[in-house]
Amino acid sequence: MKKLLTILFLLSIPLVSLPGKERIRERVYISTDREVYVAGDAVWMSAWCIDAATGELSSFSKTAYVEVHSSTGMVQTGKISLDKGRGAGRLVLPSTLPTGPYRLIAYTHLGASEEGFDPLPGSRMLSVFNTLSADRVPGGVEVVDELPQAPAPVSEGTLQVTAADAASSSKTRILLSNQGTEPVSFSLSVYHDDGIPAQEGDHITDFVRSIRSLPPARGFDTSLVPDYEGEIIRARVAGTDAEGVKAVVDKYAVISSPGSGENLYTDLISEDGLVSFYTSNIYGEQEMFLEIEDLDRGNVCHLELLSPFLDLPAGSFEPLRLHPDWASALELRGVGMQLEKNFDADTLYTALPARTHQLFDERDCKRYNLDDYTRFPLMEEVFVEFIPEIRVRTVEGKKTIQVWTSNPLGGYVFQNGKALSLLDGVPVLDQEKILSYDPNLVKRIEIYTHSYFFGVRSFDGVVNFVTFKGTLPSMEFADNVRIVDFQGCSIPMAYTCERVGSDYPDYRQTLYWHPMLTLAPGERLEVECKTPAYGGRFEVVAEGLTTGNDPVRAATAFEVK
Q1: Of 30-44, 75-89, 330-344, 356-370, which range is least confident?
Q2: HSE-CB for 4 with a 13 A CA cutoff
Q3: Quick check: 19 pLDDT over 70?
Q4: Which residue among 15, 164, 174, 387 is the one 20 to 30 A from 478 at the CA level?
Q5: pLDDT at 82 > cutoff 50
Q6: Maximum mean pLDDT: which of 358-362, 408-412, 417-421, 484-488
Q7: Alpha carbon of 277 to those of 160, 292, 436, 492: distances in Å?
Q8: For residues 500 and 347, is the Cβ–Cβ distance under 8 A?
Q9: Are 32 and 198 in contact (CB under 8 A)?
């Protein structure tokens, strides 16, 4: 199976470099909802992954990596799932960030594999003020007596935007139109302009100019495997010596997260103790379970995850200018940040389509709600009494769960192979632990009667035991199992605030954000934006690319009285 995966990967290489065609050279641009934040704010992001060799959106990589740097190093990270070169995400700045200038850079592993790769063209400069602490980035803040001037707004391309003044706690209408001959894909942001100017930095025009002037590629690092299906999660064997690693070579490594069982992947441990799980992207903050199957008793080794972030050089930083007159504006920003955290609700967000994989077909699922039947004290009794699709057999001295699977000749037949047993979506490889598990903790049993491949591992059927709590209660795992926090791809969302309630203390600084809007030539779009409970001047910024890779950026402003 490992040889088969190697062959499949080699077959994918022509997608990266075809004879007579320049290799894909990916570059990522991120637009953000604004450029001035307070520590603890969310940074809303829209991503474009461009093939610099053709100037078109790249459909190859499925994951973009985001790093936020100060002059002292990397301070925050994020991941964005890409679909046909576009993606959206949300990154929360730590509330402990000191006041200072920061740079947001983004890349794919395919793009970063290029020799001499420079992540700075198109990177975003972020001004971050900590309203809860006096900490500052060393040498990163300059207190000035003269109010800094904001950079002149940059507008370019065929996109036009207008907005009407409005009253507080009301609505304003924003009208966008595409005056060009090509479709436009863009992000739209509406935010409070409180007089604190953003730092000078690159925008979409600078990014396009940089990729059009790239010098010829000098070479590529083939050890950095591109995420062509989703993030490739890497791990290594730890907690043991070389002899211990040798003892687990070619054993199965398993990674999973609680849920439906969709996030379950396997790989064989290589001779150097490394593992690569080829995923289809995992979303959100997760608890991941790492385990080595059939580990010899007494072997204390386990798996630990390797960081996918490259911690790339972030260049030099100009000091952040700080003026005493901004105290009241920063105080309002700090209040808004804290209120949004305390009153954060799904009603402020609009879910966007996410590129997912469907491993299990619900039409093939047979469910048994155990409360519909007589409760039995032993799991084996549950199977015997009313679940004909499951049986228990002793194989090589161990009790094994087997499932009916479809017969190519028609009907169903019990397979002699081992079924996969899951508890709340997490594999329990020692099935005797499932057989001794308390059935009173189980709400239902879900049975899938087909054979399934999870990475390099196959099973004849799947049985998922779903508990009432959904948190694997009272299950004791083997000593080598590790539960680690995992940062998945950001769940794509728009911050439209369409359903802001009258009881919401509305001091939002970003009023509206949509990362992926499109307009055909001549098309118009009207957006309704809920205004906050305070007045002032608000900026509207649309930024994106045409299908011909021409930059578009349009801005306007309106007053809330």
Answers
A1: 356-370
A2: 6
A3: no
A4: 387
A5: yes
A6: 484-488
A7: 45, 13, 30, 23
A8: yes
A9: no
Other Cβ atoms closer than 10 A to 340: 21
Structure token digits, residue 270: 């290589």
Residue 244's closest CA among 266, 273, 267? Answer: 273
User: How far is Cα 240 from Cα 295, in angstroms, rounded to an integer?
Assistant: 13
Q: What's the CA gap between 22 and 83, in Å, rounded?
A: 22
Residues 6+ apart with CB under 8 A from 107: 26, 27, 28, 64, 65, 117, 119, 310, 312
What per-residue string of b and e applies to 37-48 under the rule 16 or more CB within 10 Å gives b? Answer: bbbbbbbbbbbb
Determine the residue type at 545. Answer: L
pLDDT one-digit tens code per residue, 372-392: 999 999 999 999 999 999 999
CA distance 73 to 497: 34
Contact predicate 314/100, CB 8 Å: no
pLDDT at residue 411, rounded to an integer: 64
Backbone angles phi, psi at 288, to 5 degrees: -105, 140
